[in-house]
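Bench notes, bay 3.
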Amino acid sequence: MLPEYSPEDTVRAAAAAGFSAAGIWYDRDTWSASRGADVESALRDTGLVALDFEVVWLQPGEPDDLHDAAVATALELGARNLLSISSEPDVAVTQRRFERLCRRAEGGDLRIVLEFMGFTEVKSLREALRVVEGVGHPAGGVLVDSLHLQRTGGRPDDLATIERHLLPYLQLCDATLEPPASGPEQLLDEALWLRALPGEGELPLAEVLDSVDPEVPVSFEVRSRALAERFPGDPVARARAVFDAAATLPL
């Protein structure tokens, strides 16, 4: 995923780099019918699938139907997964709204995944599983990002206990074992700008992969200011750098 570029350019860059799937960044305020048509065309022309579609960020006080359009768009594009996160402090409300997203996905192959992060209200793998298992909808699942697993105190072997149907895909990147700083704002800044290519950091990526079914699809989220500066205005070169780094992992 390359949020600095349009989603259709990201799809074409991913294809040129050798990936078989791409992530689609969805901005509710700027998405339009023409943008959807451009992304659909890019997916069709390249033969790639949209492995994930993000992000639905649940905020307190929002109307329940605010993100229905995101689910509909993900279904139209044939996306495999829609990523959600929650800043709703009431876990019962998060669970109710997550269930609504799952029900909106009924009738298609779309999975709704809940990601945990130290700077949201779902702060650990255990908390994410509690919400998803509490809903108990077949479209529901959790998303494990290697960075957030490390930053929330998780371990690779924690993944071995997750039922396979609850883990439709993974997100990987590298980073230092310890965060630059531990406050919520610093953790958010790291997630948005300071990720490293696989092999350039210290995270136990091979152990993460060893802890899950080898058939679990893998997404590489390497949001990085350093990569943006290294490949200014060149999404293909940047995607190739990610692809080459990914090739060093035991996938």
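Next record in the batch:
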Amino acid sequence: MKLRGGSVWRITMSTDQRAGCSQVVSITPGIDRTLQKYRSVSPTTGHPVITPSLKSRRFVKRAIDILLSSLILIFGLPLLVLLAVLVKVSSRGPVLFVQDRAGLRGRAFRILKFRTMAHRPAKQQAMTWTQDDERSITRIGRFLRDYGLDELPQLVNILKGDMSIVGPRPPLPEQAEQYTEQQRKMFGMRPGVLSLAAIRGRRSIPVEQRIGLHVWYVENWSLSLDWVILWRALFVVLGRKNASETLAGRNAPADE
């Protein structure tokens, strides 16, 4: 696919990956240019190979996660308190939405979010997004979801080591059990608050395509890619792009 500025980037996917991602994913020129600094081409497979030590780069990634999440929690504490009060007074129920998700190596952890929907008992929480879920979003909840503010409590998940700032979005454990071997490669890294899918369509793209993007991210990860996703995600969120679930995206976990 030819992109603005004349740069072209194609991702080669296996048959299993194509089954999990309904279309070939094109990466923007900015990512293309940045990744070239960190990659070389394997003489045997022709695929990009990340040259620095994976272990050391993941250590740096973890250090950045701890530093940034700590700073945001410290300086953003007044905002977090304000949002918690607004959630509490706007509707009955707890301030936080807590749900089991599948994380690193498929292990379950408890994800934290500001509650954006009318409170329901856990047994009534659906595995997929429905029209009833859409109608149950509160007024303050819609605002939080549009600007991604409902995800802020996940800074605690990051400090605990359950999540990263950038990574695949974590599914429900019940959904993860249905993944193919290829799709389960997304559990090779900590799940993220932000993801590649966030800059490629957010909630508007089919879940199968989101999973394909998560797998591609894990297989092609670099620190440079994280910074590109982080930078571009800021504009996506502030611009409220694709903030609402569409029919294509309704196989996502309820309240994702």
